[in-house]
Design a protein that fits this description.
By secondary structure, the chain is an alpha+beta fold. It has 43 helices and 47 strands.
């Protein structure tokens, strides 16, 4: 089927000019094979091509061509891979039968520990073998000039290099093919195989990588292997191992080749092996943001974090605001200000960036936006209250910006250039009237003394540029020079007090749709001066020089070794090309695209104008000039050069530019008649050496080669003159490898650790080769050595297993359970008021947020009545009439941000989260008491019957109906009626007194009501007299935690007792175990969190069985009612958990605060302060960190101490994740956002500012030939200043190619210079945007966006597209003229005399987007 797909795609594949195009063609062909009948037809066609013999072949008994190829080359491939088979046999013997001696031979390198697993695992090879042998054999380090080699290159045998299709398809060519096959078959039958093994070549050490011993003989190797790994490894085995890997000519073995083979055959996962192989040749490069064509996978990231320890990228998220003493340690301190009419500048909030380490880069790539929390100023607490200092800072919203730090030099990372790109600020719903803030931002850093340092701003303009740009960009004058500061985005009309847009272009000012304050790129992107210095600790770490990258050349060495060890029939050139196609950042591989031989004079004018050989070839054929295609011969020749030059991919690489000496020939046989001396005494090459039959003997010729190089895939053309004898006059090396002469080239020719591991794991070829030698043996460890890896202790709490809390919250929203009573009285001065009747507000689910009228019948005393002595018995029949009211109910009272707009920086403090939880359970009731009719007359005289009526409103919390009086919280009386501190029922509202039996009041009131159950759990039962700070702290946090909500819990305990002890336990001993500890399930360090959830579900099922038997025995024995109820509740919890455990359940571990850890280390665990703080943090949801289901407990062991000997059981909590829980636990919110980030793909980008698509890449050295490459397309910041932008199809965009770094910048260029170095201004005609409706085509200008909302309505009115454009532009010009008048009247400088118009494309996009949203 695969062969059939390739055959169908053959036409397209032969037209491909890059590896990326070839990959897309194959994928497209496979995607089109969706019809089963089509698949069957493909298989049938291929079956016929491969196996059905023609009449001629049957006559001469000639097998199919592929069978001929197999028979011809099978034995030679066996010889080629013979040494690899011998190496594999020795590695398998070592892995199966040997253990690593962990005796303390080399000082502190190895510690003797009988419990440590001594098998040949990947971890042991990395930790116990490689460093020990490297230290023993290279005591001065692997970077010394004595260690200039990195491996052993094993050339492909000559006959295998020449494998390829037969080029002569004539009758004589066919006869020659059959004769050759018959001859080789006869030679094979006679066991005459004439093929020699080429001599291996030492591979030079890649720049910056670790080398290996230049001279290592068998005695030295045997000695150190025996001492380092144990006597079992020495002697005869070490000799056999060295012999299998040695160079027979030099009697030298490659240490790195042995390491790579040992890692490939060791017991371990593909990810572990990939990380270990990376470190063999790793080097250090500055960080950058150029993406790899293969996105980093979550599994690769997990493997790296587990093996290399900790989080790879240092976090910049502050879960709580810093203390005042911690602020001077911050890297950046942003202050957000607004102007007030009464008080002048007012501080809205602050943003803190603790470090610049995650933002260090080399100045290449697209800046990445990060979201930071805006913390408000510290709130002043009421007198006598106890706070948490800066923890009382309220969350104000989100600060979204991109930061970059570009060091001036690698050895001085603290000196460089800081880049800040402010994108937008979003205030949360608790900030009053955010649209009126018009914020501006200042930023400072701190010196070593803790003093603020303003950041000087970079100004690249010359004096003449300043003069020229003034009339056009006067509004940007504050973007250059002085200090970095982000000015106001709108200007304020002092007369009317309104804010107006500055018309700066894309998304600048208040965005009403997103409720954000946005900065245009020209105003929001600012840089510091080039040599700005920060504190070293902000940018330097202990791991500053730790290797973080690997070169493509090193990847080729590893790929060749892996494929040889996997016994793949692949030549050296094929291995190198496969390596580049797998690891290259842009998916590019070097290739010979075209090669022709033309009879032509060397000085011909036609040759001077050749820019693209393919086009030149077409022109020559059209003119009738004979052209010989020699591409196939050049590919075979390339195979020869790669093998002879030790893996160098360049053509003619074994022809040096200086006179040949034996030391530099690198295997070139200069005595070969095919190689002749040129006139300068240097070796030259004859066409016959390239397997090219000279078609123009004794005439001058030109060999033209068109090729694509590695790295960035650039295409070039080369010319070689050939004399009449067929000799190349100057065989200059043709560079198919990208020269690493600048920073961009080094980035393009390397990849990071995460990218390398991802590529290995994503490549079936490499990953399967690494798995092969591990899968043969899956035997477990020796039980005697498994003690330290046995079961681990865990205390597990499952919150709300029966979903009671979630159901209660749902019922709260549906039924507030608060009773509002309207009691009507007749006012008397001298006596108690007469009771005229009462009525009650309907249930809250019948009241909407819009006011509506209700007619309530007035009744006498009932079971719902409030106890009051004025409610006399026996007057029920006298209470008559109706009450008219108007009511509305808004729940919740304050607008809560939707999850789609919430970010990971909301309310981090306990106070703020408690406030938010209260807001979610609080609604606003608005009531207007209109009038009453038909009231009973209480004041009866001879002249008339009337009364002096008023209405009193009382509220009852029906959640307290059955609560005993002594257990009621302060503020409530018996029955749940609201009361004063003295216990008197409290009137919520009272109307004025109106005379008559049909009084009219028209009085309104409003009140905030909590749901009954939430109010019950948050109100304190008694007032506390706090004598000490500890008691005040305790009671205050008890109230806050009550607001966060308590949930029913189910407990489990997993012991570390061996399974044998559990099995030998007697029945009566098992019955004595507590509930939750009777299941016998064991948890191991190797279990993933997902597996733990499965085991927890199994433990719940087992506990339910035991609890069911326990409940039956309690009933039989007649135990107390409470015991039976508790047992029944546990049974229901276990059954619910066993049935309902799903992917939404999150496993979390307790993370104490820094203060709590310090108290623990100081052994203050028996103090009251420790107990109070521990109870508060343990109950606080944000103290629990979610664990990734794909990771194991072993991964988290170094961080959280799982399985530590002698330690207490680690605390785990299992909660069903929900949108509501995100508000309670900020760590869970961060965790979910991190998980969702792995599912966001770059090709899904489609925003107003940026969009994914494909752009035409022009190869400047190949006649401007075109290639479609993936890219991110941005709005061009100067689009509004381009008069041609009005014309459809002439719009320009800013394009950044995703996987290619710009090569036009030097290695020492700064961030400011390189801010747009990788971006190209491109016309729309050269773009192909991926989304069906690209939002980037819409209006980026906020003024345009407001007007374009009218487009659908205008279209409905019958306007054409052109009419809509004219109508909206007229409105735009009117608004601009009015704005200019206001600016002139306010004494402000007038900006642009014209405004960028609305284009037809903007209207078309608005109609599509808004029409689609409406539909």
């Amino acid at each position: 089927l695969a062969f059939g797909a390739l055959q169908r795609a053959k036409g397209d594949l032969l037209k491909c000019q890059s590896a990326l195009e070839a990959r897309d063609c194959i994928v497209s062909q496979l995607q089109n094979m969706w019809d089963p009948s089509d698949v069957i037809q493909v298989v049938a066609d291929v079956e016929r091509v491969l196996w059905q013999e023609s009449a001629v072949r049957k006559t001469v008994d000639l097998p199919p061509p592929h069978v001929q190829d197999y028979e011809r080359w099978h034995d030679i491939w066996d010889l080629q891979l013979l040494q690899s088979r011998q190496q594999n046999a020795l590695i398998c013997e070592a892995v199966l039968n040997k253990e690593i001696d962990l005796a303390d031979t080399y000082g502190s390198q190895v510690r003797s520990n009988p419990l440590v697993d001594a098998r040949v695992t990947t971890r042991n090879v990395v930790n116990r073998v490689i460093p020990v042998l490297q230290q023993a054999l290279m005591p001065e380090g692997g970077m010394s000039h004595h260690h200039s080699f990195a491996g052993m290159f094993r050339p492909t045998r000559p006959k295998l290099r020449a494998i390829g299709p037969e080029m002569d398809h004539s009758v004589m060519g066919r006869i020659s093919e059959w004769t050759t096959w018959a001859y080789e078959k006869a030679m094979k039958a006679g066991h005459i195989v004439k093929e020699f093994q080429p001599t291996p070549v030492n591979i030079p050490r890649p720049p910056g990588a670790y080398g290996e011993p230049t001279f290592m003989d068998i005695k030295t190797f045997q000695l150190h292997v025996s001492r380092a790994l144990g006597p079992d490894w020495g002697g005869q085995f070490a000799t056999r191992l060295f012999t299998a890997f040695q160079n027979p000519l030099e009697k030298r073995a490659s240490l790195n080749e042995i390491f790579a083979a040992l890692l490939g055959g060791s017991r371990g996962t593909v990810g572990e092996k990939a990380v270990a192989l990376f470190h063999l040749f790793a080097t250090h490069l500055p960080s950058h943001t150029i993406q790899h064509i293969t996105p980093v996978s979550k599994s690769a990231q997990t493997v790296i974090e587990r093996i290399d320890g900790g989080t790879v990228k240092e976090s910049v998220t502050l879960y709580t605001p810093p203390e005042d003493s911690e602020i001077p340690a911050m890297a950046l301190h942003f202050s957000i200000w607004t102007d007030t009419r009464s008080y002048g500048p007012q501080l809205l909030g602050e943003v803190f960036v603790p470090t610049l380490k995650p933002f260090m880069q080399a100045g290449f790539g697209h800046e990445q936006l990060h979201t930071f929390t805006i913390y408000g100023p510290a709130e002043k607490l009421p007198p006598g209250s106890v706070g948490l200092k800066n923890k009382d800072r309220a969350n104000k919203g989100d600060f979204v910006a991109a930061l970059t730090w570009t060091p001036a030099a690698d050895n001085t990372p603290e000196v460089g250039q800081l880049g800040i790109t402010l994108d937008h600020i979003k205030f949360n719903a608790y900030v009053e009237d955010p649209a009126s803030k018009n914020p501006y931002v200042t930023v400072v850093t701190y010196d070593a003394d803790g003093k603020q340092v303003k950041i000087p701003r970079w100004d690249p303009r010359t004096a003449m540029q300043m003069v020229r740009s003034f009339p056009r960009n006067f509004l940007l004058a504050d973007v250059w020079g002085e200090e970095i500061e982000f000015a106001r985005t709108m200007w304020k009309d002092q007369i009317r007090g309104k804010l107006h847009s500055q018309m700066m272009g894309v998304n600048h000012g208040w965005n009403e749709q997103d409720k954000t304050w946005c900065w245009d790129r020209r105003a929001g992107q600012q840089f510091s001066v080039e040599d700005f210095a920060v504190r070293p600790e902000l940018v330097m770490t202990v791991q500053q020089s730790r290797p973080n990258a690997i070169s493509l050349k090193a990847c080729r060495i590893l790929t060749a070794g892996i494929l040889q060890q996997g016994l793949y029939c692949i030549t050296n050139r094929q291995a190198a090309l496969l390596s580049d196609s797998i690891f290259n950042r842009a998916g590019a591989a070097p290739a010979i695209l075209e090669a022709i031989l033309v009879e032509m004079d060397w000085d011909s004018s036609e040759l001077g104008s050749v820019t693209n050989i393919t086009e030149f070839k077409k022109d020559l054929i059209a003119k009738g000039v004979p052209v010989t295609d020699v591409r196939h011969q050049m590919v075979i020749a390339h195979e020869e050069f790669v093998s002879k030059s030790g893996g160098n991919l360049n053509l003619f690489s074994c022809i040096p530019d200086h006179p040949v000496t034996p030391a530099v020939t690198m295997g070139l046989n200069c005595a070969d008649p095919n190689y002749v001396r040129s006139h300068q005494g240097e070796p030259s090459i004859n066409l016959s050496a390239l397997r090219i039959r000279d078609p123009y003997p004794s005439k001058r010729k030109v060999l033209l080669i068109r090729f694509a190089r590695s790295g960035d895939g650039q295409r070039f053309n080369a010319q070689y003159n050939v004399d009449g004898l067929g000799n190349l006059t100057s065989a200059v090396e043709l560079a198919l490898d990208m020269p690493m002469d600048n920073g961009a080239a080094r980035i393009q020719m390397s990849l990071t650790r995460e990218e390398f591991v991802t590529c290995v794991m994503e490549s079936p070829l490499l990953s399967e080769a690494l798995r092969k030698t591990t899968m043969f043996d899956m035997r477990g460890r020796d039980p005697s050595r498994e003690q330290h890896l046995g079961p681990i202790k865990l205390d597990v709490v499952v919150a709300d297993p029966m979903h009671e809390s979630a159901d209660e919250d749902f019922l709260d929203a549906m039924n507030v359970n608060q009773l509002v009573a309207f009691e009507i009285y007749d006012y008397d001065r001298a006596s108690l008021a007469d009771f005229l009747g009462e009525c009650f507000l309907p249930s809250f689910d019948k009241i909407g947020h819009e006011p509506q009228q209700f007619v309530l019948p007035i009744q006498g005393k009932s079971s719902r009545s409030r106890p009051d002595e004025r409610h006399k018995e026996g007057i029920d029949e006298e209470c008559t009439g109706i009450l008219f009211i108007e009511a509305s109910w808004t729940f919740p009272a304050e607008p809560i941000e939707e999850e789609a707009t919430r970010t990971d920086h909301e309310m981090m403090s306990l106070e703020a989260r408690a406030k938010k939880e209260a807001a979610l359970h609080t609604g606003k009731l608005k009531v207007k008491i209109l009038k009453a009719e038909g009231l009973r007359a209480a004041d009866v005289t001879k002249s008339k019957a009337t009364n002096d009526a008023y209405v009193a409103v009382y509220i009852r919390n029906e959640a307290f109906l059955d609560t005993e009086t002594e257990r009621l919280p302060v503020g409530f009386a018996a029955g749940g009626w609201r009361a004063t501190a003295t216990g008197v029922h409290q009137e919520e509202f009272r109307t004025k007194v109106v005379r008559g039996t049909a009084p009219t009041w028209n009085e309104s009131f409003e009140t905030d009501l909590m749901t009954a159950s939430f109010e019950r759990r948050t109100k304190q039962r008694t007032r506390h007299l706090d004598v000490t700070r500890q008691s005040a702290f305790k009671h205050r946090n008890e109230l806050l935690l009550a607001a966060m909500g308590g949930e029913p819990e189910c407990y489990f305990y997993f012991s570390d007792a061996p399974q044998e002890a559990q099995d030998t336990m007697r029945p009566f001993q098992a019955e004595d175990l507590e509930p939750g500890d009777r299941h016998g399930v064991k948890i191991f360090l190797g279990d993933t969190i997902f597996q733990f959830k499965i085991k927890l579900q199994e433990a719940s099922r087992l506990e339910a069985e035991k609890e069911s038997r326990n409940l039956q025995s309690k009933r039989y024995l007649g135990d107390g009612h409470n015991d039976v109820v508790q047992s029944r509740t546990r049974l229901q919890q276990y059954q619910a958990l066993a049935d309902r455990m799903c992917h939404e359940h999150v496993v979390m571990v307790f993370v104490p605060s820094k203060h709590l850890r310090e108290m623990f280390r100081a052994r203050r665990t028996d103090t009251v302060a420790y107990e109070n703080l521990y109870s508060v943090e343990f109950a606080d949801p944000s103290s629990w960190q979610p664990l990734d289901p794909s990771r194991t407990f072993m991964h988290y062991a170094p961080i959280y101490g799982f399985g530590a000997l002698g330690a207490d059981a680690q605390q785990l909590r299992v909660v069903e994740g929900s949108e509501d829980y995100k508000l309670r636990n900020s760590r869970y919110r961060h965790f979910m956002q991190e998980q969702s980030s792995w599912h966001r793909k770059v090709h899904e980008t489609n925003t107003v500012k940026m969009c994914f698509g494909y752009a035409k890449y022009l190869h400047a050295h190949d006649g401007e030939s075109e290639e479609w490459r993936p890219a991110l397309v941005e709005r061009f910041a100067d689009l509004a200043d381009d008069p041609a932008a009005d014309l459809e199809g002439s719009r320009k965009f800013l394009v950044s190619y995703l996987n290619v770094a710009s090569t036009d910048v030097g290695p020492d260029a700064t961030a400011g210079e390189n801010a747009d170095a990788n971006k190209v201004v491109m016309d729309e005609s050269r773009l192909l945007l991926a989304p069906a409706m690209p939002k980037i085509f819409g209006a980026g200008n906020l003024e345009h966006s407001k007007l374009l909302k009218q487009a659908p309505m205008l279209e409905d009115q019958g306007m054409s597209e052109a009419d809509i454009v004219r109508h909206l532009n007229a409105q735009l010009q009117e608004a601009h003229a009015a704005r200019q008048e206001l600016q002139e009247s306010a004494g402000l400088a007038v900006g642009r005399t014209s405004v960028p118009p609305i284009t037809p494309q903007m209207v078309r996009t608005a109609l599509r987007v808004q029409g689609g949203a409406t539909g």
